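Let us work through a complete example step by step.
Step 1: write down the sequence.
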Amino acid sequence: MSNSKEPTVAQRKLGNFAPKLVELTDDVLFGDVWARKELSPRDRSLITVASLLTGGNTEQLNSHLNLAKQNGLSEDELIEAMTHLAFYAGWPKAMSAMMVAKEQFSE
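Step 2: predict the structure and record it as tokens.
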């Protein structure tokens, strides 16, 4: 975790509070898993958003919706995916995720 570049999301959110979790997030999850060539960043983002919605993990959803847009997913595609997931993951989870998306997309 070099200080010469801008802090990562994990570094900003958890800083010195949980340094090992930050290290694993930055080095293993995003430095290795997300960098693997077998899936595109766009596909990984769609899978991650779907997984976060399905698990009801809306706190993490905000930053992943932003990353999904950076990785080439449109707001319409993300809204459609969340609408589709309402029938498989549950209506309350989809509604909660959609509220996060509405707030994120209106910024």
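Step 3: interpret the result. The chain has a mean pLDDT of 94.
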